[in-house]
What does this fold into?
Amino acid sequence: MTLSRSELREKSMIILYQIDIRNNLKTPYEIDEIIKDNISIENEFVKEIVLGVIAHQEEIDTEANRHVKDWTINRLDKTGASILRIAIYELKYTDTPPIVIINEAILLAKKYSDDSVRKIINAVLDKIIKE
It folds into this structure.
């Protein structure tokens, strides 16, 4: 079964969410195990997103925090933060067209976060693209 890029981004968001929870609980984990638990086939796109977000999380969070007024990415719900991190990673480190990245992030936010988080994600990505 082949998953669409949208479905793979959703899997990546779920994996990053689970890693975030484990980090907060200080629970040991293997990234590869979490990936395997969430996606039955080897997928380079998911690995690139997950490992890329983890490797660049400090820069990504700094970028997000620069564009959120009186707020930080850590105050978003974990799902919203994962969605925003994926989108910023893709904007900064891949050649995916910005319009695709924003649309995908907004669709995930509509599905998993509330309206206020969706608006924050949209505003941050909009500001980053305009720079």
